[in-house]
Amino acid sequence: MTPRLQNPHKLAPASIQAMMALEASFRAGPLEPALMELVKMRASQINGCAFCLHMHATDARRHGETEMRLHMLNAWRESPLYTPRERAALAWTEALTRLSETGAPDADYTRLAAEFSEAEQVQLTLLIGAINVWNRLQVGFRVPHPGEAGRDAA
After folding, report:
1. Buried b / exposed e across 28-41, counting CB within 10 Å, b at 16+?
2. Are the CB atoms for 46 and 97 separated by under 8 Å?
3. What is the pTM of this model?
4. What is the three-state SS of the chain?
5. Could you tell me the mean pLDDT of each successive run of 10 residues in the chain, 154 residues long?
6. CA distance 93 to 112
7. Cα 107 from chain centroid?
8. First and final C-alpha spacing in the chain
9. d(CA 140, CA 138)
10. 39, 124 in Cβ contact below 8 A?
11. Nearest to 112 by CA among 132, 97, 93
């Protein structure tokens, strides 16, 4: 993969600063850090964003996430490892990340409303929108993820 721009973040500093402020608002908000990382990872899986997957897997581990739950995330519907609240968030993540295909189904919203307060629903929806913007920035400009010493492909 060849990066399309050297550092797209430096080319739009005010916009990146606004996105970082939005991220800070999520950290100060009502959603659990581990849940937010699962949501960011699931959207990044759907969008094929290696940079964001690397970042959010690292952050999820820092918040105590297990390797098994990270490995099983792509198959969360078939795995008993996720709580009803996490399942509702992941279903909403998929619905909004694939919005043109799903139209945000009522069944997914009903599941969301059963597990999240109205304020949490808005925060989660903004979080999903933000990670999709980050994915588009990183994938669109082919921003490479950091490598692991001794494991980078030649």
Report:
1. ebebeebbbbbbbb
2. yes
3. 0.92
4. CCCCCCCHHHHCHHHHHHHHHHHHHHHCCCCCHHHHHHHHHHHHHHHCCHHHHHHHHHHHHHCCCCHHHHHHHHHHHHCCCCCHHHHHHHHHHHHHHCHHHHCCCHHHHHHHHHHCCHHHHHHHHHHHHHHHHHHHHHHHCCCCCCCCCCCCCC
5. 84 94 97 97 97 95 96 97 98 98 97 98 98 96 75 50
6. 10
7. 21
8. 12
9. 6
10. yes
11. 93
The closest alpha carbon to 117, from 97, 89, 82, 76, belongs to: 89
Tokens representing 25 are 């608002």
Which pair of structure tokens corresponds to residue 137?
Answer: 């920035």
In whole angstroms, give the CA distance from residue 149 to residue 95: 36
One-character DSSP codes across 2-44: --SSS-HHHHSHHHHHHHHHHHHHHHTSSS-HHHHHHHHHHHH
